[in-house]
């Protein structure tokens, strides 16, 4: 069960940015606004921030319900009602929060999971020995993973070559950013339209709308203030200095450490898997990118100063606190780091690829890779993965000389979305490989193998494989055996039937003139037959091939591939045992036993391991020319004690199996002629139950019809057994 | 496997420090023993003896130097103590990649028990034995030994307190169970029964035989369906039963990719030959070798399995292999393949477009409004009961089991719907 792939589950609860200047570390930013709590009332904020498009009506309606931190404050107070001192059993269960919360009637905007943010920050700021190392701390069910980065011992971020420039440059820029953001903040308080001034994508209309929305919000906030300001000031916390002077000081101090911490809540049995996935694919990569940006332009220092300037009023008792939704709107529109973190959260939490642009010149894409196929159909006892491509084409050896089985020259690419969409995305991203990529996308086709594409378009095969692997990694495409109208396709046993209704309408939109999807699936449900039989006429072929690509892409069908094993009929065994080779061990009685179960005993005797050499050597050691007549004259009805058997791996056949193989080869020569025999000798290596017969025409360059005829002939002769699966 | 257990406390003079550690010098080096500590304690000292808010607040775990430390910090505030608080934390050290879920319970129990003892009698704070000596050290030592060797420990602490700890493995939650699933026990359940077993469980046990579906079991045992489902999910959780499908001659089975393993494994083939031998000469079970003439060779069986395919019902397969059918137990032949995973059941699904379903519903409503008394002959009318099963997500087994009808009857009733697409998956 552990080998079974599991459905993607990022378990992501929140992303925090921990920053340490020369004094205390603090949580500079976190997303979502209220992690680990009932976030439904903040839904509107998530949507707005995630897609960074605000519709005013949406926001207004959400805001009345949002009520910023107030409701959660109550929650925490309720939670803290049972301090452990009262707890007589002494069991501090995870549900019961620390008693000190009683002293905290007000929760600050960045207090998370019921902990004070300053405590959490201290916990998440490790000793400097953890520099660029995996950082993992767990609190009950939540696990915090990070990749802390520290400044160099001398306090700078750049390499030693230019120490003066870096230290002198980082400060003024940070200050400048500060001043700018302060101006912004001021203008916002004065109710001038300040939000769109510094936002990355200016939307004047929206900004004005949100302005009016903010006003409303402040009114609400003011009311609340007057009601509870007395309480607040009295019970103000001890840890975080809230007066402006210290905050300013903090900002001017150089950045000493930052740590992007991902909060996960993995199921206990998948703990290691999920944590590792997240750490390897996201946490570490993001940490590295941020460190690079920090070294280059003290990006993190600037951004955290900017974020701090926007959030510093949040917890000061006297001033008008903007609601959490307003704050997040401002943060996301002004700070590219805040925007990056929220984008990252929204994408990764829903198992999508996150495209994060930190600075205008640099962006990165992060994802937790998901499998595109499974080879084993999950039983009712195992986790179900409906809608995943079911095939062994990717997991079993397909080409012996290809380094990567998935991208062997006989595979091709199935694009997972419209080619124009991918092309426009590529052009938008301006990647260095955009040009070859778009050229390749124009010539690729799911019914031509890489090799054929390379031949017709002139792109070298290695380039094609590189571009293909790029597209596959970024979930734009999938490697498949080329689609062919003579191959057999069935409804995939792993198809997601829940999507049938929605897929039917999508299918009808894509192929309006053709039969509906359920009808096609029903046609594919009967006895397996070549796909071409489904087509009403030859003219329908292009359309039906497009349908096939669509069905394959949406995982409604899978290819039923044929596998074969060499069968040793009893008369062959009889003949071989009657005419033993000169080798003495062949006369021993055990060799007359049923089949190649004696591999172990014989294979150690220096048996040639490749089929070509065994064909050469065995006939030499088997000088029985009279056998030729014996084979053909053998009466088929003759009852023998030797039942037929299968040779599982003709490539590495034992001595006895090799003799059977050569006897079969001779038998074919006598019954079906020379052509059939030479074909058999070429094909026999594929008859191991692992190589699909469908690949023989491509490998050997024969016509499909010829292969089909040959196989039928051999099957009639009783030397071949065929089976079909995916 | 536990690597170490240690007790960290907040010392009023020295700050956070390790008081006792098993094995000695596993956490902090001491001049007397040459061994190198597993990890460096000072960087994590403030995490393990944290601010009072983070104490009494549940599990706190961290990784350092390829080790994972599970802890459960406790802080007792009382004017009795210097600085008005006593903070301690029993910590377990495991390898970083080890499965630690069963130890969470241990660390919780250990800390909460000592919290109680401390509150009752200052058990910890009054114990002034030197580091790595005394009763608490001895307790940690026994605990480490016993948990690693026997996975359980029972250590008397004083007259009225005993530390009882056992490691329990964590299993996956049981998969969803449907009425049409057929449970098959993997162990002799009747041998496990004792008087404490649940009544429903006792009633259903005789009917779990790999033939009856969950629904049938509940009918046969005259037990509530929901309770039966619960009981079987219980068995599923402990891996005592497998889930099969309802065997019928109209069912379709086909090979999965694992068939190549069956073809190559003679062991499985022999097992299969014994399993599918007809039941009346059960002697074959006792003397598998003696009855070889009657049994099928592995190759024959493999070829038989390979001849099963999509679109071919068991009934039609029997017509093709009449000579074989009399010599094997057909149900066991199929079941064996399903258990081993090289056969899969091709389920049938019926689909009617939502538009048509809605239209029918509307028509019926209008009919009822217009002439409520006139009854249309039942055979002609599309079956309203079937409607919810026709969205393509319910397999025939499920529909038949839920409505308690045969597949034949279902097919007839489906005909009344007209344009039904049957999809085999």
TrEMBL record, chain A:
The keyword Nuclease does not apply. Residues 30-101, 157-245, 577-646 are annotated as: Disordered. Its main location: membrane. It holds the Pfam family HTH_NPRL3. Residues 666-714 form the GATOR1 complex protein NPRL3 C-terminal HTH domain. Residues 52-65, 600-621 have a biased composition (Low complexity). Keywords: Meiosis, Signal. Residues 90-101, 580-591, 622-646 have a biased composition (Polar residues). It is found in: Vacuole membrane. Coiled coil: none annotated. It is a peripheral membrane protein. InterPro entries: HTH_NPRL3, Npr3. Residues 159-168 have a biased composition (Basic residues). Residues 35-50, 172-185 have a biased composition (Basic and acidic residues). Belongs to the NPR3 family. Mediates inactivation of the TORC1 complex in response to amino acid starvation. Required for meiotic nuclear division. This is Nitrogen permease regulator 3.
UniProtKB/TrEMBL annotation, chain B:
It comes from Lepraria finkii. InterPro entries: NPR2-like (IPR009348). Belongs to the NPR2 family. It holds the Pfam family NPR2. This is Nitrogen permease regulator 2.
């Amino acid at each position: 069960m552990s080998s079974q792939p599991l459905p993607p589950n990022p378990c992501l609860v929140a992303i925090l940015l921990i920053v340490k200047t020369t004094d205390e570390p603090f949580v500079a930013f976190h997303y979502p606004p209220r992690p680990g709590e009932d976030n439904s009332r903040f839904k509107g904020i998530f949507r707005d921030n995630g897609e960074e498009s605000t519709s005013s009506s949406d926001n207004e309606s959400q805001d009345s319900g949002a009520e910023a931190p107030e409701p959660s404050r109550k929650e925490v107070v309720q939670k803290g009602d049972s301090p452990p001192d009262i707890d007589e059993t002494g069991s501090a269960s995870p549900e019961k929060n620390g008693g000190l919360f009683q002293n905290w009637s007000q929760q600050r905007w960045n207090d998370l999971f019921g902990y004070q943010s300053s405590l959490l920050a201290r916990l998440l700021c490790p000793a400097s020995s953890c520099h660029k190392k995996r950082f993992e701390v767990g609190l009950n069910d939540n696990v915090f993973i990070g990749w802390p980065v520290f400044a160099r011992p001398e306090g700078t971020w750049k390499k030693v070559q230019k120490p003066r420039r870096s230290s002198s440059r980082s400060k003024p820029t940070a200050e400048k950013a500060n001043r700018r953001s302060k101006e912004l903040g001021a203008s916002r308080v004065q109710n001038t339209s300040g939000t769109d001034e510094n936002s990355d994508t200016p939307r004047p209309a929206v900004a004005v709308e949100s302005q009016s929305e903010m006003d409303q919000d402040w009114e609400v906030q003011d009311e609340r203030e007057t009601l509870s300001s007395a309480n607040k000031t009295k019970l103000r916390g001890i840890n975080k200095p809230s007066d402006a002077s210290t905050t300013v000081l903090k900002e001017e101090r150089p950045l000493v450490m930052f740590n992007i911490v991902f909060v996960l809540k993995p199921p206990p049995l998948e703990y290691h898997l999920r944590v590792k996935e997240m750490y390897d694919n996201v946490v570490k990569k993001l940490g590295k990118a941020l460190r690079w940006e920090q070294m280059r332009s003290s990006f993190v220092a600037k951004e955290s100063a900017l974020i701090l300037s926007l959030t510093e009023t949040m917890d000061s008792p006297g001033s008008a606190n903007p609601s959490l939704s307003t704050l997040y709107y401002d943060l996301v529109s002004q700070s590219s780091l805040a925007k990056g973190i929220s984008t990252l959260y929204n994408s990764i939490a829903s198992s999508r690829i996150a495209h994060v642009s930190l600075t205008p010149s640099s962006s990165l894409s992060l994802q937790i890779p998901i499998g595109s196929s499974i080879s084993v159909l999950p039983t009712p006892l195992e986790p179900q993965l409906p809608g995943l491509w079911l095939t062994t084409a990717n997991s079993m050896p397909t080409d012996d000389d290809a380094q990567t089985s998935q991208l062997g020259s006989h595979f091709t690419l199935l694009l997972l979305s419209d080619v124009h969409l991918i092309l426009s995305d590529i052009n938008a991203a301006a990647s260095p490989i955009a040009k070859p990529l778009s050229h390749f996308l124009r010539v690729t086709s799911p019914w031509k193998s890489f090799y054929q594409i390379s031949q017709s378009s002139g792109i070298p095969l290695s380039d094609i494989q590189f571009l293909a692997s790029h597209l596959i990694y970024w979930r734009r495409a999938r490697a498949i055996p080329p689609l062919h109208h003579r191959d057999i396709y069935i409804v995939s046993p792993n198809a997601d039937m829940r999507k049938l209704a929605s897929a039917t309408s999508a299918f009808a939109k894509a192929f309006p003139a053709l039969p509906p999807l359920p009808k096609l699936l029903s046609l594919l449900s009967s006895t397996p037959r070549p796909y071409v039989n489904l087509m009403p006429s030859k003219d329908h072929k292009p359309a039906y091939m497009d349908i096939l690509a669509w069905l394959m892409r949406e995982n409604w069908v899978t290819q039923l591939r044929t596998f074969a094993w060499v069968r040793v009929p009893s008369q062959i065994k009889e003949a071989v045992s009657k005419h033993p080779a000169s080798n003495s061990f062949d006369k021993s009685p055990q060799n007359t036993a049923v089949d190649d179960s004696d591999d172990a005993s014989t294979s150690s005797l220096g048996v040639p391991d490749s089929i070509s050499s065994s064909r050469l050597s065995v006939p030499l050691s088997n000088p029985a020319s009279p056998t030729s007549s014996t084979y053909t004259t053998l009466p088929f009805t003759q009852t023998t004690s030797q039942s037929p058997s299968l040779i599982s791996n003709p490539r590495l056949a034992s001595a006895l199996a090799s003799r059977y193989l050569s006897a079969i080869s001779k038998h074919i020569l006598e019954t079906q002629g020379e052509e059939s025999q030479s074909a058999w000798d070429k094909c026999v290596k594929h008859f191991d139950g692992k190589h699909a017969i469908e690949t023989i025409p491509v490998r050997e360059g024969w016509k499909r019809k010829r292969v089909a005829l040959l196989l039928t002939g051999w099957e009639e002769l009783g030397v071949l057994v065929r089976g079909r699966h995916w | 496997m536990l690597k170490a257990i240690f007790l960290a406390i907040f010392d009023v003079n020295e700050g956070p420090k390790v008081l006792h550690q098993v094995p000695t010098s596993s956490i902090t080096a001491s001049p007397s023993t040459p061994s190198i500590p597993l990890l460096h304690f000072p960087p994590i000292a403030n995490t393990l003896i944290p601010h009072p808010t983070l104490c009494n607040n549940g599990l706190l775990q961290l990784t350092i130097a390829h080790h994972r430390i599970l802890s459960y910090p406790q802080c007792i505030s009382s004017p009795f103590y210097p600085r008005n608080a006593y903070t301690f934390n029993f910590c377990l050290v495991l390898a970083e990649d080890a499965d630690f879920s069963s130890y969470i319970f241990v660390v919780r129990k250990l800390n909460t028990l000592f919290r109680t003892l401390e509150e009752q009698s200052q058990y910890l704070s009054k114990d002034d034995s030197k580091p790595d000596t005394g009763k608490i050290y001895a307790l940690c030592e026994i605990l480490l030994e016993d948990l690693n060797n026997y996975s359980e420990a029972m250590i008397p602490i004083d007259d009225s307190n005993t530390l009882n700890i056992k490691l329990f493995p964590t299993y996956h939650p049981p998969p969803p169970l449907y009425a049409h699933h057929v449970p098959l026990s993997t162990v002799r359940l009747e041998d496990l029964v004792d008087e404490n077993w649940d009544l429903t469980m006792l009633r259903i046990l005789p009917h779990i035989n790999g033939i009856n579906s969950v629904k049938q079991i509940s009918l046969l045992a005259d037990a509530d369906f929901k309770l039966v489902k619960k009981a079987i999910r219980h068995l599923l959780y402990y891996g005592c039963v497998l889930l099969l499908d309802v065997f019928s001659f109209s069912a379709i089975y086909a090979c999965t990719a694992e068939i190549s393993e069956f073809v190559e494994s003679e062991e499985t083939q022999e097992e299969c030959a014994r399993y599918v031998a007809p039941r009346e000469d059960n002697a074959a079970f006792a003397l598998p070798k003696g009855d070889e003439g009657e049994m099928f060779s592995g190759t024959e069986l493999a070829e038989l399995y390979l001849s099963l395919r999509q679109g071919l019902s068991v009934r039609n397969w029997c017509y093709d292999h009449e000579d074989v059918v009399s010599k094997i137990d057909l149900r066991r032949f199929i079941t064996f393949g399903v258990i081993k995973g090289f056969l899969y059941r091709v389920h049938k699904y019926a689909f009617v477009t939502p538009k048509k379903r809605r239209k029918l519903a509307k028509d019926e409503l209008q009919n009822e409004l217009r002439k409520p008394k006139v009854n249309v002959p039942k055979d002609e009318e599309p079956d309203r009961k079937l409607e919810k099963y026709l969205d393509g997500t319910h397999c025939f087994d499920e529909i038949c089991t839920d409505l308690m009808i045969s597949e034949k009857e279902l097919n007839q009733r489906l005909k009344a719907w007209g344009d039904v697409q049957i999809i085999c998956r």
